[in-house]
């Protein structure tokens, strides 16, 4: 019985023990109670923080972060002595661990042995690694802010591949409809700055690592950010890493504060560049769509218009400019932000945060209806040049109707405004002006560019701008931003009043030298190779006419023949670089040049003084005043003075007669070497002058030609006198003649003062000397223009001569060149044959043509007979070798 009572007593004691133990494991705090219930095997494979996360979600409906370090960053920190059941304890081992506090120093934590209960006070290990505790309330993680809520929802893998700032951009666009910039550096410059102690859920926090990063703030130091682990939650206060690189925070409110329509449309279009815009085309499109303003297509042209704006005064919608390989333009937003086309599409950038864009920034413009035209100027040159903007480009034009090239544009503007005749050639304009440095440029100066061997001229209009006849017409350009010109800029010159006076015809109207006065009457007369009328003429005709009309001096028609008469002031071979012209010659002297068209004397001008001259020039296409630039100095030959010349040399027969003056009388003689008799002299002169075959003796010469009254005789006609035989003489004009006399040889006789010759005058005759065969060749050639001819140019010329003149020419171009008579370019007549080379530096003929008069010729090109003008065409001028007459 006693033994039975003992067993009953033991059983009751065990019941009491287990009852008290079960009661002790119930804390009344749901998180702590659930933790106790789960003590045992870790069937779920929790890590410590996942166990805590699970407990809080199941027991209290609170979503804690997954990792202990993130759990540590949320909630309210609790001192060890104030711990309550359900608080979370943190321990620092190889990684941060967390567990659930039960009470009385006990806590539940995941260990290698499973989910275990441990006493903090009794365990030296756990007490040694204890680092703190947090308490969490039902509202510990607010979700009222939509950006913060969405950020929390997205914690996990970064499946979209966001950058930190792209994540923030996405969250704000999806949750608040606010379009933030793509990059953190641009996000930092928008919105309102927030102090660290005033952060609210949804604010954007910024961190400076290798690049600027941004994240979404939650609360109590928590924020969500993209890391290498994905979209993660971190704590600004508890993480020394994030706290150390924190640089600030911004708050963004719904709705844009930007009211400018251009800025707003630019922002709306950020994304892919579907239209394929270049930077300036994008700006052009934005302004047309939003403000109805027609901006130019190119950024460099946009820069020329509008009102310049300082960086600190920029407003939304202004246009900002940047210099890269070329000038770029974009739409300004605010706070350094702007929208521009890049290789990535239509993008938003920021000048304040980007070193590249900050360094590339060159300025900004504000555009209105009132400032889309160039700024006003008081400079007449610039004003005139701007009035011609839009005039078409024409390489051979020199007026607003026909258009301009760069040189003729400057020539026209200066002539219209100042009355001075600058050269039409850019390189000549450069050499004639006073060179100035770029930083000394003034409105109206000329700026120059070089494209390979071609010089280009512009008129400086101020602020690094210039006006030029470009391929698209007369336009205003910029010395820096129009890269075609900035890369080719070679210098600038200024035309002072003193320089302009030298090329102004009015300066010479009352010149003391009548030859210069006369020459000025023909300013602007078109140049025409071999031209011999006042409507159009060449260089030697101008000299001949000016001396005849100005001083009554009769010169030969051809420049090289003029060089053979008169007084030599500077001989051939004079080094013009070693002398000052004005120390040796005077205004009214004739300047001669060689090698401009062909070898030997080929050009002539009248000297005006101060290294200026007037001449009829194919290079300028007219009679004009020119500076003695390097080209003319290179071709300079010498100077002649004709003041005392009284023989009339304008007629070929008179000229030839002048050449043999002083030759001895020789009976039976008919050339300068053996001397002349009377008939031999006139026969020789006509042969040399006209290729005309007079009979040998005077009586025979009287039988041909046409009799005229002696009073109607003209230079070159023959006068006949009675003697033992009929004596012929060459009439010179001015009642003078050349005759071969036994006593004095070939001499000039003045019939006005002679008592011997007038009583013996028998009569006068004139002769038809035109070479009708050459004219027939020219006429036939003109009939072939435009027709197909199968063969070479030599064969074509052969055919023309054979058909029109019944002349058989050689079929070999080199044999043909050695035949006939060499003709000076200024002596060309219709039907003469011209030799050309395909290469400018070659002396080997490649093809030939037939001269048709007035500077034109026909030749065979690609089996078609073509007619060409060569008066001022450098292509043909540089390829012409010589001309010959057959």
Overall description:
It holds the Pfam family NLPC_P60. InterPro entries: NLP_P60_dom (IPR000064), Papain-like_cys_pep_sf (IPR038765), Peptidase_C40 (IPR051202). Residues 1-24 form the signal peptide. The protein is of the alpha+beta class. The protein folds into seven domains: 29-135, endopeptidase domain like (from Nostoc punctiforme) (endopeptidase fold (from Nostoc punctiforme), Alpha-Beta Complex), CATH 3.90.1720.10; 146-251, endopeptidase domain like (from Nostoc punctiforme) (endopeptidase fold (from Nostoc punctiforme)); 261-371, Alpha-Beta Complex (endopeptidase fold (from Nostoc punctiforme)); 380-494, Alpha-Beta Complex (endopeptidase fold (from Nostoc punctiforme)); 504-641, endopeptidase fold (from Nostoc punctiforme), CATH 3.90.1720; 652-766, endopeptidase fold (from Nostoc punctiforme) (Alpha-Beta Complex); 772-885, endopeptidase domain like (from Nostoc punctiforme) (endopeptidase fold (from Nostoc punctiforme), Alpha-Beta Complex). It is 28% helix and 28% strand. It is built from 29 helices and 48 strands. Strands 1-6-2-3-4-5 form a six-stranded antiparallel β-sheet. A hairpin with a 2-residue loop joins strand 45 and strand 46. Helix 14 (380-387) crosses helix 15. The longest helix has 23 residues, at 2-24. The N and C termini lie far apart (169 Å). Mean pLDDT is 91; it is low at 1-24.
